[in-house]
Amino acid sequence: MNINDIMPPDWQLFNYSFASFDKNLLTIYLKVKALFPELWVNVKDGKRVNNWCGLRSPSCAIGAPKSAHRSGKALDLHHTDIKALRSWCMSFEGLKAGILRVEAESATPTWVHIDVIQPNPERWKDKSVPYVFMP
């Protein structure tokens, strides 16, 4: 796993490391990366193409102040076949791998936001697949 792919550009200023991430999220990332080898978060083909799709540092001005990205519990996944990636993440297999929530496609049409935040049980009607939410 390339640490730069999931870190913000200024990660060394904040002494971030793999320990800054939820262990379950890292396990999920490795599993999805094995299934979708061309998967990327911030770094594609050795070049940084995104900055804030993994961990978000205090200098990040995008997203909610209490975003799961800020606590190392979320990733925005990118792939050339986003439809296949989204379908897998939103399936029973995705839930079994540990994905608890997926952001709605209408809010993230070119990437898949996954996280390990426990959904509100009253809103999570179909517990056989990850909870789909709107930001």
Description of the structure:
- With 135 residues, the protein is of the alpha+beta class.
- The chain has a single domain, classed as Muramoyl-pentapeptide Carboxypeptidase, domain 2 (2-Layer Sandwich).
- It contains four helices and six strands; from the N terminus they run ααβββααβββ.
- Strands 3-5-4-6 form a four-stranded mixed beta sheet, with helices on one face.
- The longest helix is centred in the N-terminal third of the chain and has 13 residues, at 23-35.
Task: Fill in the keyword field for this structure.
single chain, 135 residues, alpha+beta, Muramoyl-pentapeptide Carboxypeptidase, domain 2, 6 strands
**Alpha-carbon distance between the termini?**
28 Å
Catalogue the unreliable spans.
Answer: none
The 3D shape can be described as globular
Structural class of the secondary elements? alpha+beta
How would you summarize the topology of this molecule?
Blueprint: H1 3-6, H2 23-35, E1 43-44, E2 47-48, E3 74-77, H3 82-89, H4 92-97, E4 101-103, E5 112-115, E6 131-133
Parallel strand pairs: 4-6
Antiparallel strand pairs: 1-2, 3-5, 4-5
Concise structural overview:
The protein is an alpha+beta fold and 135 residues long. The protein contains four helices and six strands, in the order H-H-E-E-E-H-H-E-E-E. Helix content is 23%, strand content 13%.
